[in-house]
Every structure is written in structure tokens, then in C-alpha cells.
Design brief:
single chain; two-stranded antiparallel sheet; mainly alpha
């Protein structure tokens, strides 16, 4: 059975079972995350729909979903572009995300079963292993599964939908955090603390640890954006991303 990560659904899905619009959505998202469609790049509807072997109608429907989620934007009389985010917008995203994910953890912990915590432990173990072998694609998928567990278990549709939208925007800039040299060891340390809090059913401490984890990623991203900005100003490096 062929599986692919369904970004809209937030899970692995049987490729045959996703709708045409979902398939287009997933493939365009992947192009954006892989920088095949770089931040600020114009989306050529005709060329991309031909590349994906789909008609323009479902392609435009998928673009509509991407626009609603803040991944692309339409500029009057100019066309559709991959969204670029200024550093302040990125920082704002993280500020909201860390507080909402803390809430998700606080709501989820009383509902978690021992079996679900075991699954979380497996996800974190595999994520650390992926980091240590330099498999950033596997790490990104596992990290996403970890973060999506808590709003799903919390069973709060509004919270889950809001975090899903934020997560898809944040994925555009997470490449910076993953470049930190100590990210693997820091993740391993955080893994132990988070699992201990979950097994103790300490919702407040687990929520605090999640908030601190995301705050650490936030600092890394903002620091690297600052370094890049200084490099652009001095002319020593090219501007490679603004999201």
C-alpha cells in the first residue's frame, strides 16, 4: 500500500484514498517545503498543473486552500506567490504556537493512555535517531507527528485546526532550527523530561516543557534570521529565505 504524508489531514494516508484536490495540495506543499517553490516565487498555474497532470479547476481549488492557510498569497494584477514572512511575523507565529501547544498538552495529559505515551516515546526515540544520522526529512515528519498528538488527544477541534494552520506556516522556516549543531542532543534531553512529565500525568509541567521546547526553537530561528539579515546587509551572503 502506497502511503504519503497528507498535510491537510495531518497524517500518513493511502495515496489512492486522498481526493484529487488533497493530492494537489500535498504536492504543492511539498514543493514549497523543499524550496522547489521558493519564498516569494510566483506560481505558474499552467506550468504546475501540467507538471502534476491535473486540470486547472482542481488545481485552483487546492491553491484556494493554500491561500486560506497562509502559505501562498494573491497579489492583485500580479498573480499568485509563495508567501514571504518578515522576521516579526515569524516571531509572532511562534509566540502564538507555543502558548496554544502548551494548552493542547495541558488538555491532553489527563486523557492520555499508557499506550499513547508509549507511542509518543517511540516517535521521540525515532526523531532523535533521525537527527543523529542527519535524516532531516524523517525528523521533520516525526516531529510533526509528535506535535499533532496533543491537540488530537485533547479532542478540541478549534485548537487542532488553529494549530494545524500555524504549523504549516511554521514549516516554511523550521529549516533554520534544524541547522543548529546541538539540536540532536537538546532534543534528546527534552525527550526525557517531557516523557517523565507525561508518565507522571503532570499536565502543568508537561505544558511548561512544551512551551519551553518551542521557545528554544523560536530563539534558534530568530537568531539565524538575524545572522542572515546581517549577511545580506553586508553583501556577504545571499538572501535565501524570508519566511
Amino acid at each position: 500500500m502506497a502511503l504519503q504524508y497528507n498535510y491537510k489531514a495531518g497524517k500518513l494516508s493511502n495515496f489512492k484514498n486522498v481526493t484529487l484536490r488533497e493530492r494537489i495540495y500535498d504536492e504543492v506543499v511539498q514543493m514549497i517545503l523543499n524550496r522547489e517553490l521558493a519564498p516569494g516565487a510566483q506560481i505558474d498555474e499552467r506550468a504546475l498543473s501540467e507538471k502534476l497532470s491535473v486540470s486547472r479547476t482542481p488545481f485552483r481549488e487546492a491553491l484556494g486552500t493554500l491561500a486560506n492557510e497562509g502559505l501562498i498569497e494573491t497579489r492583485p494584477y500580479r498573480g499568485t506567490f509563495v508567501r514571504e514572512l518578515a522576521p516579526k511575523q515569524i516571531n509572532d507565529l511562534y509566540e502564538v504556537r507555543k502558548n496554544l501547544e502548551g494548552l493542547a498538552v495541558r488538555l491532553a495529559v489527563p486523557r492520555l493512555t499508557d499506550g499513547q505515551i508509549d507511542v509518543i516515546e517511540d516517535i521521540l526515540d525515532n526523531a532523535v535517531a533521525a537527527l543523529r544520522r542527519g535524516d532531516m526529512a524523517a525528523y521533520a515528519t516525526l516531529d510533526q507527528q509528535f506535535h499533532e498528538t496533543f491537540p488530537r488527544v485533547a479532542d478540541n477541534e478549534t485548537l487542532s485546526n488553529t494549530l494545524g494552520r500555524l504549523s504549516r506556516q511554521i514549516q516554511l522556516c523550521r529549516v533554520f532550527a534544524n541547522k543548529e549543531p546541538d539540536v540532536a542532543e537538546r532534543t534528546a534531553t527534552e525527550r526525557t523530561a517531557i516523557l517523565n512529565a507525561l508518565r507522571a500525568r503532570d499536565a502543568d509541567h508537561a505544558a511548561f516543557l512544551m512551551t519551553q521546547h518551542i521557545a528554544g526553537v523560536q530563539r534558534s530561528v530568530m537568531s539565524m534570521l538575524s545572522v542572515q539579515s546581517e549577511g545580506v546587509k553586508s553583501g556577504s551572503v545571499k538572501r535565501i529565505i524570508a519566511s
